[in-house]
């Protein structure tokens, strides 16, 4: 079965083609036949496209980013044409799997996309404005360019859909519960993949390990994992809650929002834009949402970049502390996502606060681009893992399972 996966994040569009043969799913992620990444934010006005194939072909292009759909169409063309071609026509793809960020109350597992599903994704766009519209664009781009193919939605909210009520319900009026205003949690595809990988690295049964998964990308969230399930998480009703992020504020006193809305020159839309696009690392530093640029500015003595870093670290530590209490103990702390996987300083800074528990990082291992390994010292009381998240592989597995079930 050939599966194309489209994973639209807030700063990137990642895409992969996998070929799964045989009648069971492999335990380890397969190497994609073709993978592409579009980075939307690295250079103003341009998108950077990188394509790689299993055969070793590579392509790097800088394209004007005026229209996301055009960039997507161009990316899809590299699958069927030119040096990175891996299929001769779209009909060779059996199914297209999409990461869909908000699935609301109704979508607690992956589904085959129908008109109803598309309408629900569009309806929920208000709650995930940086994601659901891009997810829908991906679905529509396939329909427009490739015609009718089976498409599947894998929801970021699904893995958190069994959160205990005490963690899921906001202490507003009870009517909120009836209106579906609750903590949904996001990055669920990554928070589900990482514990499975962690249990293999640790050589322990998933049901016996207590984990905190720190997904630190452009969006950032933590999840507390017990018995392989999410029992607490930092993102909420929308992907704005919790940790400080690239350009999102994370949790702020709701009184600030009331105060700003009372000032007549602030509209709801402006406020939404400020919280989603002009806050977080970008808002505080005035430089960028990208952690690489924040680190660079700190090395040049920029005090606002330093402040942005300090707040990011403070919040990360304090939310890890919260997850620790929800779990009542911890076997391993897991770092993943663009920042979690690539930034040794953030891992060291987060872990330092838990040294009193006997958690110790091996600084040599931490510094040397760790991938899917334990970076704690042998005498550390808690393991510390760096895991390359394989959201795309997890989505491909969901597609395979759904189609196998349908054909059984
Ligand atoms: N080498 C690196 N060092 C530090 N941060 C990095 C590095 N590579 C990527 N990042 C960070 O990862 C972020 C993107 O994370 P990613 O998980 O890919 O994002 P998305 O939210 O789009 O899925 C970038 O904004 C950047 O801050
Ligand atoms: C939900 C979310 O914030 O996703 P991303 O980090 O990919 O933007
Ligand atoms: Mg992401």
Automatic annotation (TrEMBL):
Mg(2+) binds at residues 7, 391. GO terms for molecular function: acetate kinase activity; ATP binding; magnesium ion binding. Mg(2+). Can also accept Mn(2+). The record marks 187, 248 as: Transition state stabilizer. It is found in: Cytoplasm. The keyword Cytoplasm applies. InterPro entries: Ac/propionate_kinase, Aliphatic_acid_kin_short-chain, Aliphatic_acid_kinase_CS, ATPase_NBD. It catalyses: acetate + ATP = acetyl phosphate + ADP. Its cofactor is Mg(2+); Mn(2+). One of its GO terms (cellular component) is cytoplasm. Pathway: Metabolic intermediate biosynthesis; acetyl-CoA biosynthesis; acetyl-CoA from acetate: step 1/2. GO terms for biological process: acetate metabolic process; acetyl-CoA biosynthetic process. The active site is at residue 156. Belongs to the acetokinase family. HAMAP family: Acetate_kinase (MF_00020). This is Acetate kinase. It comes from Brasilonema sennae CENA114.
